[in-house]
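Milestone M4 deliverable, item 7.
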Amino acid sequence: MLGLAYESSKEVYLHGYTDSDYATDKSDRKSTTGYAFFVNKNLVSWVSQKQPTVAMSSTEAEYIALAAAAREAVWLPKLLEELGFPQENPTVICVDNQSTLKLAKNPELHKRTKHIDIKYHYTRNLIQDGQISLQYVPSSENTADILTKPLLKSKHMMMKEKLGMKEKEPTIESKNHGPISRKLSLKSMWTLTTLLCLCFMMPCYGITQNSQPVLWRPSPIPVTEGYYRVNFKVTLISPCEAITRDVIHDDLVKQAKEQGEKMYQEMLKN
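Output delivered:
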């Protein structure tokens, strides 16, 4: 079971990360906004959602995401103040796009940015008023990156740890035997998934007769009733063949196929 782990601390330091992908939705070409705010190392607020408008560039997509994070950075200090933890310094928001930082800090309008909606320039006022402060962070260290796009396994695990997410086995309290741990192994899940795939993907063959088919399958020879014996031919197909770039991200196709083929060979071939 995956959950968030929180640590206590005497100091209360609010900071956040913001990020965006660019036009990854193939249907409407809208980008995805992602931001995460922390109190010390504890995650307290996060968002991963599609942007309301189509961004004309990656800089604009990052700028729209920054505007959404800036609104959250205005509300969270007020909440902390009501709880008795006022913030004396501006809330730091980390961004991994240099062009977005320059656009937010420069009040001049340019030909490439004059079409951006006025509401997204709200970030500039917050910077001038000293409510927020922008800071550059490399993409490899931007925690909000996991909220906008699929990542490679190594980076995904690193970002998951930075979010404070940890694995914990679920327990069921029993009156007589105490806590009982239940854990479903990865191999068991893979075996079950493989069997389900085979049930839907196997072709069926039988003996032809002029009567109603019993099973409707994509086979040139239908399986019919009226015989005591029906012959089936089952072909084992590796589910890895269904892993394509249309199903998962390009960066994960090769690694997923190698891992799936290895488990397929171990469990079904040997």
